[in-house]
Amino acid sequence: MTNLSAPSGPPFIALSAIPDADWLGAALPLLHAGEVEALEWGFDSGWYERPAPGWLSELADHYSTAERLIGHGVTFSVLSAISDHHDEWLRRFAEECARRRYLHISEHFGMMRTRNFHQGAPLPVPYDPALVRLAVSRLQRMKELSGGTAIGLENLALAFTADDVRGHAAFILELVEPVDGFFLLDLHNLYCQSQNFGIPLQDLVSLFPADRVCELHLSGGSWSEVTVNGSSTTVRRDTHDDRVPDELFEVLPFALARFPKLRAVTFEQLGIGLRTAEARAGFHDDFHRIKEIVRGARHG
Amino acid sequence: MDEREEIARFQEAFLELLAADLTLEEKYARLCTAAQFARYRDQVSRWDPRFLGVAVELLKKWGARSGEGIGESGPDGL
Fold first, then answer.
1. What mean pLDDT comes out for the span A195-221?
2. What pLDDT score does A8 carry?
């Protein structure tokens, strides 16, 4: 059972804001036209070295005032066994939540911090009840410091086995259920797993609990070659630097119908993939294609 | 050693392994045999080495050791 409320209306069409001039150049026409109904931003990405540019802070303030701002932490490392950095992160998190109002706030499943590494990308961890207890206590603290804002976790693209892929939703549920939290379901991360392990995408979407998915991510990615024992294969990666694959648009109506508590459908792309006029046109096309599908679901 | 410290040591050893100057095959072999990974031996011995290779690339691109400057943060999976 969950007390996560269903939104009063259809999900917002959101953009993931990136502190990058190429991203801003691509997003400005959509922002000026009032087409971006909500904004997601990595509020902690500027805490440790380069602060967020002024335009991004102002944009976040604007969407906060409109009660259309979504928080997406990137550096907390919820499944790290050590806690060396968590107190400082939580202190800043409390300040951020006092400054801006969020629709909801998510972080990533996975681990990136240890005593020897202080930054990275979130990596999968073996399932361990001791680690679950630790992570739940951290999510509970986030919820308290945010004044009761719903806290969620995003599914990861990388998995080491097909069994891990099939068990991913259940693992995340153990983390978010005790805090009545939500899933941020990244469809491109699922697409990576679908392609890499040969599991139909819709089957993977169906593994996620219908009453706890409150946000979708859509993005593009790339293929990498990996050689093991002299044999090369390609693997799909969530690099956010290219167009959204058609398969995501095809599964989006199914996801919209399956998850009644969706508050936002968020489109992500990095500035590195937006340096040409053709790429920016593709960004607009993908945004509008998402919008049309969500609009169709609203009227369907 | 309590279990939290044991998990912390696994995580540290795992990132050191990803960063090590070894072939992917050697990394996988160590994962399956070295004492630091014993807590999760059943799980890690089933891992697909191709995706260990992706983890290596991710750490190479986004990882920073304690005491080093902080670089960018970003995908995969963000």
1. 98
2. 78
Under 8 Å CB pairs connecting chains A and B tally to: 157
Cα–Cα distance for residue pair B20/B17, rounded to 1 Å: 5
Q: At what angle do helices A129-145 and B3-19 cross, to 10 degrees?
A: 90
pTM above 0.80, yes or no: yes
Mutate to test the interface with A, among B18, B50, B57, B59 (most CBs of A within 10 A): B50
Q: Do A120 and B24 touch (CB under 8 A)?
A: no
pLDDT the model gives residue A298:
66
Compare CB distances from B7 to A42, A118, A131 and report the shortest one's residue. A131
For chain A, say whether B53 makes contact (Cβ under 8 Å): yes
Query: Cβ distance A238 to B74 under 8 Å?
Result: no
Tokens 């593009």 -> residue: A220
